[in-house]
Write a sequence for this structure.
């Protein structure tokens, strides 16, 4: 009998086919109200959980899976998994680092360019047939600026590599460590924001980084500044961000992540100086296929008695 898995987020179609072929994959009901009864009837015997970075391990789920031995996250972030609880039950956890780094960094640059070059407005101009009658929408130059990066891990470094072609300066602040990579280091986020035209948020979410980008940091970035967040919504004080954008105390924002996904506050959706994306940093066919393949490889290794390829716990 193949091991039984509960899957609460689909993989890309190729790795999904592998998963379906090698495991007894079960899906819980789409209707959240029906899940407790489903889990009570089907939870025993499930040894693996396949989830996404955004969903993690929802509260109460581990308790409903008495035989759970591994959680395979289809994503790099593990902020929605209670690692202490996993350790206490000796449940292993894997994620999918590295394979998504370039795509997430690309999206950060795209959001910055959208904010400065106003691509949606330019596209509307063409689609609405305004061109060549009306004035083309003038934008702001995105190159040669002062770029700040919060969190210089894998994704932060990939953003820095891309920015090195933009001809400005690069500075950073890091909540966890201080690598020496030739960029100016700022001890505080306020100091980094004051020294930046664009501030990229690339720090992992945790209790320590929650609302780290607060009102003070946002205001230090200032009325011409742009905030780009491709990390997690919880790292930014979203209410303070919306207020500053509305009042002109912050120039613009490029956001791929939000505090309560998939909810994007109406205020943010209405603002013209915001570029929005539905948490699609890793959402290319290539990367989603690679992430899914890594999920399956981790599960195969675990159930084959081998080491996890990319262990978290
Ligand atoms: C990740 O991999 O953590 C992405 O942000 C998806 O949640």
């Amino acid at each position: 009998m193949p091991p039984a898995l509960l899957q609460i987020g689909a993989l890309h179609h190729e790795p999904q086919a592998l998963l379906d072929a090698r495991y007894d994959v079960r899906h819980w009901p789409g209707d959240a109200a029906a899940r407790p009864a489903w889990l009570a009837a089907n939870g025993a015997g499930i040894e693996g959980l396949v989830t996404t970075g955004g969903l993690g391990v929802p509260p109460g789920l581990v308790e409903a899976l008495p035989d759970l031995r591994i959680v395979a996250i289809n994503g790099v972030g593990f902020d929605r998994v209670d690692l202490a609880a996993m350790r206490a039950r000796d449940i292993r956890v894997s994620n999918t680092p590295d394979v998504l780094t370039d795509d997430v960094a690309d999206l950060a640059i795209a959001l910055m360019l959208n904010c400065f070059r106003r691509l949606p407005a330019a596209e509307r101009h063409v689609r609405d047939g305004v061109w060549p009658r009306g004035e083309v929408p003038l934008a702001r130059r995105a190159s040669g600026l002062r770029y700040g990066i919060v969190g210089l891990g894998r994704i932060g470094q990939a953003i820095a590599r891309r920015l090195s072609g933009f001809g400005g300066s690069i500075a950073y602040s890091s909540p966890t460590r201080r690598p020496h990579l030739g960029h100016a280091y700022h001890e505080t986020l306020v100091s980094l924001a004051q020294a930046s035209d664009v501030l990229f948020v690339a720090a992992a979410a945790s209790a320590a980084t929650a609302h780290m980008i607060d009102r003070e940091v946002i205001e230090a970035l200032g009325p011409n500044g742009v905030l780009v967040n491709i990390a997690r919504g919880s790292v930014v004080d979203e209410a303070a961000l919306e207020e500053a954008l509305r009042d002109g105390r912050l120039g613009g924002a490029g956001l791929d992540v939000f505090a309560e996904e998939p909810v994007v506050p109406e205020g943010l959706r209405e603002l013209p100086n915001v570029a929005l994306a539905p948490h699609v940093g890793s959402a290319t066919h290539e990367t989603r296929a690679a992430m899914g393949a890594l999920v399956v490889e981790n599960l195969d290794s675990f159930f084959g008695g081998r080491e996890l390829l990319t262990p978290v716990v």
Remarks:
- The chain has eleven helices and twelve strands.
